[in-house]
Amino acid sequence: MALSDSVQVLPSVGPKRLEALQDLGISTIEDLLTYFPYRYDDLKSKELAEIQNDEKVTLSGTVASEPVVSYFGRHRNRLVFRLLIKNDVVPVTFFNQPWLDKQVVVGEEIAVYGRFDGNKKTLSGMKIIKAAEGMDSIYPASKSIRQSTIRNLIEVAWDKYQNEIQTIIPSAIRQRYKLMDRKLMIHDMHFPDGQYAAKLARRTAKFEEFFIFQMRLQLVKQADRLEDGLSIDYKISELTDLIASLPFELTDAQKRVVNEICVDLKRPTHMNRLLQGDVGSGKTIVAALAVYATITAGYQTALMAPTEILAEQHAENLQKTFKDFPVNIVLLTGSTKVAVRKQILPRIKNGEVNLIIGTHALIQDEVQYHKLGLVIIDEQHRFGVHQRQILREKGERPNVLAMTATPIPRTLQITSYGEMDISVIDELPAGRKKIKTTWLRSNETDKALRFVRDQLTLGRQIYVVTPLIEESEVMDMRNAQAIYDRLRTDFEPAYKVGLLNGRMKSNEKEDVMRAFKANEFQVLVATTVIEVGVDVPNATVMMIYDADHFGLAQLHQLRGRVGRSNLASYCLLIADPKNQQAIERMEVMTKTNDGFVLSQRDLELRGSGDILGNKQSGLPEFNVGDPVADLKMLSIAQEEANEITDDENWEREPDNQVLGNYLNENWKGHMAFD
Ligand code: ADP
Ligand code: MG
């Protein structure tokens, strides 16, 4: 007898019920016992005087009238009787449960759970309570299995298996955080003696869930680390030469992450690292140093960007950076001419070229590398898991450096990205001016446009962004076309206005971006499709219409399109927010330029429900824990798991025995790793 037994061992589980349970993710006794209630109804009786209007309560009293069932319509009916509670008479109504009348006998004591109407002093009954029931656990159910059935199964399983339950969390950790043993936790999750006991049990259940999750992550990471990888044996002096050639001094944050990356490259293990830094924090030069370390050690590097224009921009920048260094760069994208391709491919294959920059074109079959030592993936979230995988398989476990300008809030760092090492550039180069952000109401739009004209007069360029519109919203939101028409009337012919919208094909969009970059027009009206990462240093104003329709992360990304030079830059938010949350977003934007602060605030404002439902975010689903609200506990679980797995022989430690066995037996393959 073990918790790993199938639920089929329970007498009332046949093939049909088994299927219903499996649909809920329940296959074993362990699954069933950790299928927790999402709320508890307090069934203890209350005095009439202490009940709030609309409160769900249990009332006990004497049945004072015969139950009467009346039918209305074909399937609907109501059962009514009076309940005498001390000196008060409360009418009780049950809808569509006519069979309850057998349990309602005049003169007998009865307890009824339901919703109390404080004005009419009536009770809308939900169920009749057997004596001695204190709390009722409510489980998520489905069409094919009722929650009362689930509860009964759990009771049976508990009776039979309770002595098999061993505590997974090592006792040292359990004592440190005052957690319950597992048997008590499971008992009190299902059958608590009051809301407080349930709350305490939930605290332990959450920790256990986070801790097991983090143990799995750490073990995957450890396995990855232990497998062989390439050791990039570069010389420090080569790197210092490159650093000395730069027109600026690296920031402390850049130095720190360069060090983290280079130490990792040198290790004979596989690097899997995420480099995060806000727009303008200087990720490119950090990447360049990693490239150079790899190249001087005799390996090739591939840099993959999500769009052609970004790949071109990288090629252009890196050509400059490596002007006086032995780096041979090629650019390979979808629009590279066949003749040029024919020349390039053999040079990649024979190793003559050592830095290959491009788009998806880099992962096509015909591209064969010589000695691929490092793969850099820019804006990594824009690529599918599969594409990243292919590029990796082009070499023998090359080191991987993924880059992103989207600040990843801590919650996601330690869940979705938990298997990667993370380097963060949390500092902007000195002298970078803050982007001054102002929030204006829509009746102040003219003021904003006067400011735009002033900037145009100074020779600057302007982004004007408007949210994508859906048909139903046409009435209250200005669309890009209308704004484009208006700005043309205002500014042409002195200044030219361009338009970029979501319906354009990607090469059309790229052409518009190139033209804007070349200052062929001065004002760019766009829906949110402007390419993140494209540098137009001369653009100094980001004006956003209906800014309250964007999330904080998006607003911050848009704002990052300006402030790419020493010129003073501005962000103008035009918005008439209709709710408190949107007002708060506008205010936060005007107060901080820090992407990490904004992204965590964004998560908090939206709540994890929003993210949990969103597959894109890649946030794993937790059963009891909430990775946003319970961030602190999640972090602690990570630290503890980290500490345990740091010791390669952790499984031999007696205190870790149950944990080790549990992980071996319950290695569910549903973790989202690539
Ligand atoms: P991002 O992190 O957005 O990719 P970039 O690498 O494109 O940022 O850098 C933005 C600009 O800042 C570039 O023009 C780059 O040359 C410059 N830059 C990078 N690091 C520094 C530094 N330490 N001091 C001054 N300027 C820097
Ligand atoms: Mg960049």
UniProtKB/TrEMBL annotation:
Its EC number is 5.6.2.4. GO terms for molecular function: 3'-5' DNA helicase activity; ATP binding; ATP hydrolysis activity; DNA binding. Residues 444-604 form the Helicase C-terminal domain. GO terms for biological process: DNA recombination; DNA repair. The keyword rRNA-binding does not apply. Keywords: ATP-binding, DNA damage, DNA recombination, DNA repair, DNA-binding, Helicase, Hydrolase, Isomerase, Nucleotide-binding. Pfam families: DEAD, Helicase_C, RecG_dom3_C, RecG_wedge. It catalyses: Couples ATP hydrolysis with the unwinding of duplex DNA by translocating in the 3'-5' direction; ATP + H2O = ADP + phosphate + H(+). InterPro entries: ATP-dep_DNA_helicase_RecG, DEAD/DEAH_box_helicase_dom, Helicase_ATP-bd, Helicase_C-like, NA-bd_OB-fold, P-loop_NTPase, RecG/Mfd, RecG_dom3_C. Residues 264-425 form the Helicase ATP-binding domain. Plays a critical role in recombination and DNA repair. Helps process Holliday junction intermediates to mature products by catalyzing branch migration. Has replication fork regression activity, unwinds stalled or blocked replication forks to make a HJ that can be resolved. Has a DNA unwinding activity characteristic of a DNA helicase with 3'-5' polarity. Belongs to the helicase family. RecG subfamily. PANTHER family: ATP-DEPENDENT DNA HELICASE HOMOLOG RECG, CHLOROPLASTIC. This is ATP-dependent DNA helicase RecG. It comes from Secundilactobacillus malefermentans.
